[in-house]
């Protein structure tokens, strides 16, 4: 029984994951996948694939969909990644009882070449002043599809909003209320049943940091953050994720909820949290390899969201 790993530039987490799986003595081995083109319905030799790179390499996503058709269990579900966006994540979170900042999704500034004025007859001119008044200033402008702080900007005025919007190209941008928090928490999650709420200092360019003391957050806040994270992941079908909450006067605001390929690198998690991520992911992948469970085409979230 084999587990395949698709990786990009990261080393510490996939290397440690493969070593852990291969040391468990469960009759399951893990290795890196090598691809150079794929024939239609070519046999996929992996029972499970841990996907750490299809969000940036479209060919990998195409391959994973065919693998799922053959019964391979993919972590995460590539069908859901191509359907999901952060605005939907906020809407789903509110349905699940998670507070959200005021958020507005904006029409695209630019479109592919064959979109013309007739293609856009459903659109009215965007009233930026109205939306900025709704979310308040300062606020945040960020992509509905994105991660790693790319194209995230703090907006102080109408002029700044228009500048960053006019530079956004074909990206779908959002305006979001800026939450001034008492406590900021990031919650790596694995397998829809393990969550680890960690005090986090958010910052762009990979400069954010996890507190190395798991007990730095009061137990009541930590338990609540983990419960909300697992509720969200169970509803939307994420097997790995990292959710972020800004806590103000005991209210948890979901700030970033849909991280298809969360950062589990040693440089980020360090000694206090990295072994947890490796152990839980290895346990999950081996469990799926030894089961008959397959990747569903879409998550079965409706029953939870419509309750």
Task: Write out key terms for the chains shown.
four-stranded parallel beta sheet, 34% helix, alpha+beta, globular, 9 helices, 21% strand, 307 residues, six-stranded antiparallel beta sheet
Average pLDDT confidence is 93
- Percent of residues in beta strands: 15-25%
Radius of gyration equals: 20 Å
The helix count comes to 9
Unreliable runs: none
Main sheet, how many strands, which sense, barrel?
6 strands, antiparallel
The SSE order reads: EHEEHEHHEHEEHEEEEEHEEHH
Provide the helix percentage. Answer: 25-40%
Shape: globular
Class of secondary structure makeup: alpha+beta
Q: Would you kindly provide a written description of the structure presented here, covering whatever features stand out?
A:
It is a single chain. It contains nine helices and 14 strands. The strands form three sheets. Strands 9, 10, 11, 12, 13 and 14 form a six-stranded antiparallel β-sheet that branches. Strands 2-1-3-4 form a four-stranded parallel β-sheet, with helices on both faces. Strands 5-8-6-7 form a four-stranded antiparallel β-sheet, with helices on both faces. Strand 1, helix 1 and strand 2 form a beta-alpha-beta unit.
Write a brief structural summary.
With 307 residues, the chain is α+β, with helices and mostly antiparallel strands.
Strands, helices and their partners?
Layout: E1 2-6, H1 12-23, E2 29-32, E3 48-51, H2 58-69, E4 73-75, H3 78-83, H4 86-95, E5 103-105, H5 128-135, E6 139-143, E7 153-155, H6 158-166, E8 173-177, E9 183-190, E10 194-195, E11 198-201, E12 209-210, H7 219-236, E13 240-248, E14 251-256, H8 266-289, H9 302-305
Parallel strand pairs: 1-2, 1-3, 3-4
Antiparallel strand pairs: 5-8, 6-7, 6-8, 9-10, 9-11, 9-13, 11-12, 13-14
